[in-house]
Amino acid sequence: xxxxxxxxxxxxxxxxxxxxDIPIQGTFKNNIKAWIELKDKYVPGLKDLDKFSHAILIYYxxxxxxxDIEGRPFLECGKHGIFAIRSPHRPNHIGLSIVKIExxxxxxxxxxxxxxxxxxxxxxxxxxxKYFDSRSNVISGWLDKHFKNGNIPDETIIK
Length: 159
Hints:
Order of helices and strands: EEEEEEEEHH
CATH architecture: Beta Barrel
Largest sheet: 6 strands, antiparallel, barrel
Helix content: under 10%
Strand order of the largest sheet: 1-2-7-6-3-8
Shape: globular
Mean pLDDT: 87
CATH topology: Elongation Factor Tu (Ef-tu), domain 3
Oligomer: single chain
Structural class: mainly beta
Number of domains: 1
């Protein structure tokens, strides 16, 4: 298989017009509001999603035009492999975010905890399920040294 074709199911709208304005993680600026505008044929797929507090959004980094095999992530001076960081400059330019669902109205899902650029093509939505998606005893590689005792690093470092 050499080619995969995906079609967006909707568009993500956020206040972030430029990548430099996006927080490293949406939970670092958890009061920012955004919404998804789903294509009409996918609206029935939203049934019962409002019973969940969070969703996983899978999307296409539409403004990333380069592909790196290594990159320098936030908090680090050195480079790491692309699969050990969350850079948008990756093979296939696929992004994933966990967001907090605020409400669903018609073809729109309103959410917070956003770290996604405005007008981003949405590929899929999945419910976040604590029984499946949460793990204990997680080791976060090179990031662990920056999050001492679970504390988020200084805000000036992360925007």
